[in-house]
Amino acid sequence: MNYPDNLKYSKDHEWVRVEGEEAYVGITAFAQGELGDIVFVDVDTEGESLDQDEVFGSVEAVKTVSDLYLPVAGEIIEFNEALEDSPEAVNDDPYGEGWMVKIKMSDTSQLDDLMDSDAYQAMLG
User: For residues 73 and 25, is the Cβ–Cβ distance under 8 A?
Assistant: First the structure.
């Protein structure tokens, strides 16, 4: 599986791509593979400020629904609306077109709590 080096990873299988004070968040290739075919992404926290590890939405696959946890605290400034019509983008391109939310980080030091690609792969075994 693919775990890009330019991302940070959470123990809950979310990734973060930092761009200045903003960051994109999605789920990892491992997570989407475990969930199976994604049929719906529900994020109703746009405009809200959330703490690290707080639920920002959920993802629904054919057989299960799973909560999505914010890897770093911040304000949800954008939801990837393309996922409303094409939730399968999470399966097809989890690190690109399948991103879920864009946030304005409130505490960039929390990035230090996250794993790099090597540490995330080691956690997966």
Answer: no
